[in-house]
Amino acid sequence: MAVQLNHTIVHAYDKEESATFYADILGLPSPTTYGPFREVRLDNEVALDFLQVDEVLQQHYAFLVSEEEFDEIQNRIVARELTYWADPFEKRPGEINHDDGGRGLYWLDPSGHKLEIITVPYGGWPA
């Protein structure tokens, strides 16, 4: 078996709010409960396990999506009137980037984590 990421814990001020936010904005199934976690399962079987904590240190989560999914997610971000940027340094608000021949954008989740969607992996697709 090849090594694969199975799950990661995402610290949140409100695990229900954050898990629901990710599921809704990314167009994924509703969160489920697993022990103390609210779990959101991605299409590649990786789980984001949201754990409620008192202090959150910002992390970065990037999601590779199709062109169609990018449009759908961006439309949900705009509909919620969330600020988004073309860059991780928040210098280009309301724009998208075209790095590596695809499209990308960044925005924040309810706990302050920086989220990113890209349509082409960093470095481009393998030849």
Mean pLDDT across residues? 97
Strands across the major sheet, in which order?
Answer: 1-4-3-2
| Chain oligomer state | single chain
Unreliable residue runs: none
Number of H- or I-type helical stretches? 2
State the gist of this model.
This protein has about 130 residues and is α/β, with parallel strands linked by helices. The chain has helices at about 15-25, 65-80; strands spanning about 5-10, 30-35, 35-40, 45-50, 60-65, 85, 105-110, 115-120.
Walk me through the topology.
Layout: E1 7-12, H1 15-26, E2 32-34, E3 37-41, E4 47-52, E5 60-64, H2 67-79, E6 84-85, E7 104-108, E8 114-118
Parallel strand pairs: 1-4, 5-8
Antiparallel strand pairs: 2-3, 3-4, 6-7, 7-8
Overview of the molecule:
- This protein is of the alpha/beta class and 127 residues long.
- Helix content is 20%, strand content 29%.
- It contains 2 helices and 8 strands, in the order βαββββαβββ.
- The strands form 2 sheets. The protein has a 4-stranded mixed sheet, with helices on one face.
- β2 and β3 (37-41) form a beta hairpin.
- The radius of gyration is 15 Å and the shape is globular.
- It starts with 6 loop residues before the first strand and ends in a 9-residue tail after the last strand.
Features:
single chain, 127 residues, alpha/beta, 4-stranded mixed β-sheet, 2 helices, 8 strands, 20% helix, globular
